Amino acid sequence: MTRICSFIVAWSIVAGGLAQAQEPDEEEAAVVAPIQVAPVSPPIVAAPPVVAPPVAAPPALPPPIVAPALALPAPYPYRLQLVEGPPRSVPRVGLSVAGGVMLGTSWSATFMASVLTGQWLLGIPFLGPLIEIGAIHSQSYGTGAGILWIDFMLVSDALLQIGGLALAIAGARHHKVPGRQQLLIVPTGTGIAGRF
What is the mean pLDDT of residues 78-96? Predict the structure, then answer.
């Protein structure tokens, strides 16, 4: 119904416009005559003259400075020698942090899942996910892709926890690095060395 009403309204507007657009009477045509206007060319504007910027001469260079000839002193009886320091033991902080983060995030996610689901065996670190696999298979939930997926997730969770512990232990161990280099003043003619 709405389409029909809008069609009727549109048709009446178009028809009314056509009725008004009929040709004018002869009297009106005689009064209205087209006016012819001669084309006007745009005014020509000359471009401003181009002026080159002033060029300044470069400043004169001062005369070169010549150092007077001096006699060099005799070579010193000492020389500088770079010596490696004793090796030192440094902890691997990056491995410790990475292992702690890996262990903490994987175990905390498993612990939250154990609290929400009531499967308290999951809360045991490192072995909890592996014990839970045995508990799931003993309750005979069936076989299929769902059980295999759960087994995969629990095994990978246990491996993440064990890997995080291994990284944290490896990072806690110290490893030897070369010592700091030392600059020694050594006499050139003798084997005596001094440190500062």
Answer: 84
